Amino acid sequence: MTDIHKASLLATLGNMFANEINDAQYSTEVLQGGTVGDVAKLFGNAETDNGLLPFSIIVKTQRKWDRYGDPDSWRREYDIYKQGLNDELPKVLKLPRCYLLEESEGITQIWMEFIEGKTGNKKLHGNELALAAQKLGELQAEFHLYGERDLPYLRNYPAVRSSFNLWWNRMKSRLSRPIDGFPDELRHILNDYALHANNIFASFDTLPLTLCQGDFHHDNLIFRESAGETDIYLIDWDCAGYGYMGEDAVDVLMEAFVYSSRDISLLPYFKQKIIDGYCEGVRSRGIDFAMCNTLVRDIFALAWGFRIANLYLFYKDELPKKRCIEILQAMLTEENMNV
């Protein structure tokens, strides 16, 4: 956990309350820890001349590290706030307010609003994810129509390309021969996708270009109810960049199953709800856009197929291995294409 500097905390609280803060007493809860960054919740009371003000805030500390194909991702969320992109985006999806930004050599810190709400795989299901996808479609359509195309702090290539390059390079040797317990049908399908990847990517270039969040899933979505209205917050913008419409929609679908214990039989229902919701959001902004089953399958295969095959090799227990196979079958085999 990164050390908390009292001067930074007081400056943050001063900006938060628009008031002079004399002191603060607080406790810390680590929400996410790691060697390259951590996220902590600070909560307590701020002391002013007029009494105590209770507070809860988030401190996100990120250390420099080199993500595959995206060396600036470690500081991207900091730059999004610093350059004010968070204020320019349509408010159909919200980012937490930022109260203070700090930077030192190889480290950034974002002091931001704490959002209390419904989040995570156990709380967000088909209807919620479909609504989030709809709002994402609205945001991405707006950005396609009016957003800047040359912001230097955003990733400047579609994430589906780097994902394919990463996981195909890891898997191509293993997929060249039978894998114990892994269906040959799936192995041949994935190899065929790799063989035709350049042509498929060329077809993707006809898709509308937009801002992709790059990590769009249930743990990064927070639904907050207030005065009978629902605000949806989207957090963790480290992977944000320019990409194709539809990439993030496929991501939120797959995250709902790849990293959960949700019944795979629900995948077709979730797919229809999420993809329909996303396309509805895009079309509501005047863009004629649809995602046919073939497009969804192609994005899935190149962005997720080889990654899930790699997970199959990584897992030791039979249950998660079986789950990998079931997801691949549900998304790639012909009998499931029109479900």
TrEMBL record:
Domain Aminoglycoside phosphotransferase span(s) in chain numbering: 76-268
Protein known as: Aminoglycoside phosphotransferase domain-containing protein
Gene3D superfamilies attached to this UniProt entry: 3.90.1200.10
A Pfam family reported for this protein in Swiss-Prot or TrEMBL: APH
Domain of life: Archaea
Source species: Methanosarcina barkeri (strain Fusaro / DSM 804)
Lineage: Archaea, Methanobacteriati, Methanobacteriota, Stenosarchaea group, Methanomicrobia
